[in-house]
Amino acid sequence: MTLAEATASARQALRVAFQQRAVRFGLLGSVLLVLGSLSPAYLPQVSPLTRFMTSLGLDGPISKWTGTVFTMVGLALLLEFWLRIRPARREAQGLPQLRHWAVLVIVGAPMLIAPPIFSHDAYSYAAQGWLLESHLNPYLVGPGTLPGQFADQVAWVWRSTPAPYGPLAIKMSQGLILVAGLDPYWSVVIMRLPALIGVALIGWCTPRIARRFGINPAAASWFVLTNPILVIDFIGGAHNDSLMTGLMVLGIWVTLKYRVWWWGAAIIGVAAAIKQPAFLVAVALPFLIVPWTSWRIRAVAVAAGRSLLSLAVAVAVFVALSLATGLGFGWTNAVNVPGMVDTVSPFTVLGHLIQYPVDALGLDPAGRTVIRTLRSLGLVVAAIGIVWIAVRHLGRRPLHFVSWSFLLFAFCAPAIHSWYVLWGGVLFPVTRPSTRVLRVAIVVTGVLLGYAAMNFALRNDAWMLALLLMWTLWESVRAHELSQNWEDEAPQESLVRS
């Protein structure tokens, strides 16, 4: 295909996608989320936008309620849009499948120049880059060490904490703030660039990986690319998890394409230099080429050796990047940072429920012992569960292992954020989920959106609107028949079916 033909094909895909009412719902939802992000609930107290909104008198109760309404309606529209373009639904209506990359371009476009949505992490990225540019090590000091607008934009809870991210992520943040001319606001906006690269990698690799295992690429792209959590957190929130996840699926695709696992393992090492959980994927790569099918001692030893060697390659690349950046391994000082905030992590919630009567009876002077214990228990459950998943799936269905292990960790970790679920979510279609499991996944997506909405509404003193949204999301899910045939009519088989 020539460049002119490719350009014409892309324009046609965008035109067809925009003609769909459901896609326009998604676009409107995205626009409303951008408008809602200008609310006092999610703008830093010190920001050019905050000062501008204040100068217009848009920082009072009316603007808070208006911003909350925009956000709640936007979230509801994004979920409805996602459910309406489900491939099985379009097939039942006799409609052709959409090019989901085109859908994502349309729906995600309004977020490109907006402030971060539903998260302040991008402000931390910029501040950590500013620390490094100022010859301070972000692994040793927090953004508050260097007063100024970069630090002022960071959420209070993170101003004194060191960076937990990989060395390549911090080095990229330094480079990006230089590209932005050291402007504090645009340094934050440009943090979307790595996230967009990650989304592009996910969009390119997901359907190709799916087809390798006989999964309908349209169904896989629908679930992953147009998922409201990906649109909001990877594009709107600019999380560095996006680039990590994109490199993870690239490593998987390279391994499948070229039948050489060490190339994929090297890419996973780069992904881990963005964010360390990517290492888990390296363990599974050799089994994409040669499955492990026997529990005989020799077979187990060979399989373990290949897996450990793959992990060693990834670690070697990670170590090389850590030394090359000059940052070393200081991230080990911050492994507990993500768990410093309370979220709806199941074990944290259970800990609070038990902690309350314990505190009422005066049995715990510290007031957090039960919560800390339950959080530790969650990590133990995750570790045991991952071992069990490995025993059951790693050898024959390595991508089942990767997807379900990441999902288990996301829900058992001390803190859960919606973007954590995307680590395993991008491979979820490859596990061929049943209709029941798919319904659970869609409901969980709605719950995570509702949780983000509640946080937003509480900041704007409008929590009743979030309750209304939760009811709307539930009714939206109930109104759809949530089945999906994952099978591809013309699969390109791999040696091992995952």
Automatic annotation (TrEMBL):
The keyword Transport does not apply. InterPro entries: MptA/B-like. GO terms for molecular function: glycosyltransferase activity. It is a multi-pass membrane protein. It is found in: Membrane. The chain crosses the membrane at residues 21-42, 62-81, 101-118, 185-206, 218-240, 260-288, 308-331, 373-391, 398-417, 437-458. Keywords: Glycosyltransferase, Membrane, Transferase, Transmembrane, Transmembrane helix. The keyword Nucleotide-binding does not apply. GO terms for cellular component: membrane. Signal peptide: none annotated. Belongs to the MptA/B family. This is DUF2029 domain-containing protein.
